[in-house]
Amino acid sequence: MSKKRIFSGAQPTGRLHLGNYLGALKNWVALQDDYEAFYCVVNLHAITLPQDPATLRQATLDLARIYLAAGVDPEKATIFIQSDVHEHAELTWILSCVARMGELERMTQFKDKSQKGGRERSSVGLFIYPILMAADILLYQTDLVPVGQDQKQHLELTRDLAERFNRDFGAAFKVPEPYIPKAGASIKSLQDPAKKMSKSDENEAGSIFLLDDADTVAKKIKRAVTDSGTEITFDETRPAINNLLTIYQLVTEKSQAECVEQFAGKGYGQFKGELAEAVIEYLRPFQERISTYDDEALNTILKSGAEKAAAIASKTMLDVYQKVGIR
Ligand code: AMP
Ligand code: TRP
């Protein structure tokens, strides 16, 4: 039986943090053995907000390097840059004619991201961002999409668009399922556990970046806010400790029970010390690997990835054009 297919992507903007790693990348690596995996650097998504061109070009390559350093294996998974496969932009147009204004207006990420500059001044690209994401996924007849909790609504829209197109024009798309991890789907800011850890957070102390050195990691964890009370347990009514313990559990791959037992009767100080050590150890191999891929090796991997991706995307696109009456 042929393997089921997964597709996921991340934007080459800002610095990747532990939330991206535990919510997404970690699962990408775990899933690549059992699925036919496509992992994309979504640079067309990045320009929905203003970007400096030279920085974007570099960040795009750097993000592909991060996928590799995190353990995505180009022998198993297809790694490519979104803009290298022109069908992503083409299918976005077709799906824009299938999507409704009303359903896009309900997207909470647009509401969040447009808040800063104001809705009137937001790009239309930011508004239709979820359609581009749907195109990414649907081009590959994807079964499963591993993402963090914040992308769930976009996945629902993707499913709705696929079903509507299939109904109105004939079956062109597989309807994908989200894959959202039980633990780690929403890692919170170390400074404010009501907010998710985020690339765009102005308070750097809230995020552990994947390239933070050991000292920085230790300091950020030491300064992390905690809850009242003293017990170190998984308890959603105490979101700060719950978040820190979730991070500990994920980086050590221990069970919840083991973690609770380990810290029973211990104080926050000792817990934070052990947590810092565990996170530093967890990031070390990743940080060592990041410099081992030079641009040439990277470009070879990305070129072959784009070819593999295009072979599939072009088939879906032709079918779509035929069904719509463009070809
Ligand atoms: P982005 O960097 O926004 O393109 O996100 C890349 C992936 O990381 C997506 O699958 C997100 O859902 C996931 N992600 C982003 N922030 C977090 C977080 N704080 N906790 C867990 N997953 C996250
Ligand atoms: N919107 C996603 C994010 O910000 C990134 C993304 C773009 C994506 N296209 C995708 C994720 C397709 C999964 C599948 O995190």
Describe the protein.
The chain is mainly α and 327 residues long. The chain has 2 domains: 5-180 and 295-324, HUPs (Rossmann fold, 3-Layer(aba) Sandwich), CATH 3.40.50; 204-289, Tyrosyl-Transfer RNA Synthetase (Orthogonal Bundle), CATH 1.10.240.10. Helix content is 54%, strand content 7%. The protein has helices spanning 18-31, 43-46, 53-70, 87-96, 101-105, 108-115, 124-138, 152-169, 214-223, 239-252, 256-263, 268-289, 295-324, and strands spanning 5-10, 36-41, 78-81, 144-146, 177-179. It is globular and about 70 Å long. Residues 7-11, 42, 45, 133, 136-137, 145, 147, 151, 154 line the site of tryptophan. Tryptophan (TRP) binds at residues 7-11, 42, 45, 133, 136-137, 145, 147, 151, 154.
Distinctive features:
327 residues, mainly alpha, Rossmann fold, Tyrosyl-Transfer RNA Synthetase, 2 domains, 13 helices, binds adenosine monophosphate
